[in-house]
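User: Hi! Is it possible to get a structure for several chains at once, not just one? Here's what I have:
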Amino acid sequence: AQKITQTQPGMFVQEKEAVTLDCTYDTSDPSYGLFWYKQPSSGEMIFLIYQGSYDQQNATEGRYSLNFQKARKSANLVISASQLGDSAMYFCAITNNAGNMLTFGGGTRLMVKP
Amino acid sequence: GAGVSQTPSNKVTEKGKYVELRCDPISGHTALYWYRQSLGQGPEFLIYFQGTGAADDSGLPNDRFFAVRPEGSVSTLKIQRTERGDSAVYLCASSLVPVGGFQNTGELFFGEGSRLTVL
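Assistant: Yes, the chains can be modeled jointly so their relative placement is included. Here is the combined structure:
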């Protein structure tokens, strides 16, 4: 079984500053993928970034980067230069080796202050 | 449209009634997933289709829940004898290939969900 733990139910960040959202995972699969999704109040799940377990470098997508520490089983999301539109729920998720499902964490609500 | 479409967007029903929720995935996507999201929680996996077949239905909570995808495209989630605890947002997602842990950035594309309220 796989598990994602997001220990921060809510976070505040000042506009234009960077913020790190924590994610730790547990899996027995030798190969897996880690995802971050954003869910604004409209409810849509928006894909942000992906990290494969065998990727040597940390994934980056624009203002998003993933701080992947395999030995510690952590996959923290870093958002640089926060914007008001970044206010949303953020979910970390992991695939299983068969690739047939994503397991999500409980989410972190990010609130960006002007 | 180009995205995953779910209907109805909102459904209010009475306890004990039967409900169908429809998902129209992105054209050509072979993998289709149903998730359930309760208020303040992360999405919870229900069932995964690869083509027409249910490759993994281990997340369905009980036999009141059933899903079909007869032609490998549109899927319907069916809930019999609804209970108040079934109230949630039901999310559908599709992918060109199954999401995987290898060199595969198999992104899941989500619909906007169907909000089910059981009174």
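The longest strand of chain B covers residues 88-95. Chain B touches chain A at residues 33, 35, 40-45, 48, 50, 55-56, 59, 89, 91, 93, 97-113 (CB under 8 Å).

User: Great, thank you!
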